[in-house]
């Protein structure tokens, strides 16, 4: 890895499809149950996260997945246990921002506590950078592995946040083809391009699968 960075994965990572080639990042003997925390805070993120959950279950029907986290209605329909409902965090106008801030703070504390207590094999954060990057920092400091799905558009603004990705995210799944090179130019190489979820059939290029050997590393595979 760049800057000598290496990190072992307890048992989860993904196989991604890059155009016609399939790259398996890691492999391991299958286990019976995988516990994953997944956090999405916007309607689009709720849809992408629900599709992701369904894809994982479809790809590995013999594995028992336990999903929990911050959920919208589609995630709950997909069977994700709610630590908190992101429907309750919707903001319709500027007037509501001030009154909503305590709700976001409570949501942050609830999710952090749930992650530390449940010790998921990995945390999947879906978009929602203003909230999820802060959560990534807290959870990574507590030894949890962080997968971030849909990169923040740092190439457009707030490029300084790339350092937060480097420090606190173990694997970034990008949906735009140039983003991997953008990060590589800044010495950040824990990035994989998986295709845009809104493109026809793109979800099938994305996450196929999870299950990986304890003690293996992303690096050098």
Summarize the structure.
The protein is 33% helix and 22% strand.
Count all strands and give the number: 11
* Overall radius of gyration: 17 Å
SSE order, as H and E? Answer: EEEEHEHEHEHEHEHEE
Q: Structural class, judged by helices and strands?
A: alpha/beta
CATH architecture: 3-Layer(aba) Sandwich
CATH homology group: Glycogen Phosphorylase B
Strand content: 15-25%
Mean pLDDT metric: 77
Q: What kind of sheet is the major sheet?
A: 7 strands, parallel
Distance N to C terminus: 11 Å
Number of domains: 1
What would you note in describing this structure?
It is a single chain. The chain has 221 residues and is of the alpha/beta class. 33% of the residues lie in helices and 22% in strands. It has helices at 43-59, 73-77, 94-118, 129-141, 162-168, 179-184, and strands at residues 8-9, 15-18, 21-24, 33-40, 64-71, 81-85, 122-126, 146-149, 171-174, 191-193, 216-217. Strand 8, helix 5 (162-168) and strand 9 form a beta-alpha-beta unit. The termini are close together.
């Amino acid at each position: 890895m760049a800057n000598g960075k290496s990190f072992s994965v307890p048992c989860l990572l993904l196989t991604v499809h890059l155009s016609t080639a399939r790259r398996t990042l890691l492999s391991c003997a299958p286990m019976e149950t995988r516990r994953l925390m997944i956090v999405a805070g916007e309607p689009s993120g709720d849809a992408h996260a629900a599709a992701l959950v369904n894809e994982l279950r479809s790809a590995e029907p013999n594995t028992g997945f336990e999903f929990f986290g911050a959920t919208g209605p589609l995630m709950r329909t997909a069977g994700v246990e709610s630590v908190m409902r992101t429907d309750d965090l919707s903001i319709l106008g500027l007037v509501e921002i001030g009154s909503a801030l305590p709700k976001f703070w409570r949501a942050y504390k609830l999710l952090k506590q749930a992650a530390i207590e449940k010790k998921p094999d990995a945390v999947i954060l879906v978009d929602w950078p203003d909230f999820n990057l802060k959560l990534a920092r807290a959870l990574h400091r507590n030894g949890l592995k962080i997968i971030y799905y849909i990169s923040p558009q740092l190439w457009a603004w707030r490029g300084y946040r790339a350092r937060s990705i480097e420090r606190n995210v173990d694997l970034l799944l990008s949906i735009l083809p140039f983003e991997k090179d953008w990060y590589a130019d800044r010495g950040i190489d824990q990035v994989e391009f998986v295709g845009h979820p809104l493109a026809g059939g793109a979800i099938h290029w994305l996450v196929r699968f999870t299950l990986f050997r304890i003690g293996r590393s992303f690096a050098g595979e």
